[in-house]
Amino acid sequence: MKANKTLLGKIKLRVKKRKDLTFVLNDFRDFIEKYDYDQVLRALRTLVKEKILIKIGQGIYAKTKVFSNGMVTLCANISVLAEEALKKLGVKTSKSQYWNDYNSGKSTQVPTGRVIVVNKRVRRKISYNGYEIEFETI
Description:
By secondary structure, this protein is an alpha+beta fold. The chain has helices at residues 7-17, 29-34, 37-49, 78-88, 97-104, and strands at residues 22-24, 53-57, 60-66, 72-74, 93-95, 115-118, 127-128, 131-132, 134-137. The protein has 2 domains: 1-76, Orthogonal Bundle (Arc Repressor Mutant, subunit A); 77-138, no CATH class.
C-alpha cells in the first residue's frame, strides 16, 4: 500500500487502471503540475525498464503484453495504437486509400495498416521493432 504514495506507484496504478492502450504526456499532466516534469519522465522510463510500458514515439507510450516465456510485446497492433495516440493528440485519422481499394474490391492485396490518413501534418515518428507508421495528409 505504501508504494502508491510515491510518484512511481501513482503512475503505475494509473496505467493499470485505465483501459487506454496508449498514453501521452498529457495523460500525466496533473502529476507534472504537482511534481516535476523530469520526475514524471524518470518514472515513465522506469516503467519502460520494468516492461509495463513500451515507448513507441516521442512522448507516446503503449501498454505491454508479457507471455509466459518472458517475451514482451505491444498489447495491440502498432496501427491501432498509433490511431489512438493521434486522437489523444488532437489529430483526426481515417483508413488509407489502400483499405478503401481493398474493401471496394479494386485490389486483392491486403493492406498492412501502417499507412494512416491524417487531417494535418504529423511530425512525430511512431514505430516499434522496425515497423514505422506512415502518414498521408487529406
